[in-house]
Design a protein that fits this description.
Elements lengths: L8 H5 L29 H23 L2 H30 L2
Helix pairs in contact: 2-3
């Protein structure tokens, strides 16, 4: 005759493992991410650079045509836009490609 053995559900699933789990020894891992100049070919970086370069070319053309008042207005705007654009693009570059 065959005997059926009953298991208690909680005891069956929460039983401690038969052999103790060994913890791996901690080790330090270092990584190096090389900087690639090709990362500057990102469309966002190229667009920002193209806009700034286009404004500078327009400023030079207006200077040759003798429209000094408009060139002065461009120069005042560019004094503010160029640093803001440069640092924004730099932050974008590092945030996007370094992390």
């Amino acid at each position: 005759m065959r005997k059926t053995k009953w298991f208690d559900f909680q005891n069956f699933f929460h039983k401690s493992p038969s052999k103790p789990s060994t913890k791996p020894r901690p080790f330090k891992a270092y990584s190096f991410v090389p900087f690639s100049p090709l990362a500057m070919l990102d469309p966002t970086i190229l667009t920002i650079g193209g806009i700034v370069l286009g404004i500078a070319i327009i400023e030079r053309i207006l200077e040759r045509w003798g429209v000094i008042d408009l060139v002065d207005q461009f120069a005042k705007v560019m004094r503010f836009i160029l640093p803001v654009t440069f640092y924004s693009a730099l932050i974008y570059f590092f945030a996007t490609f370094m992390f």
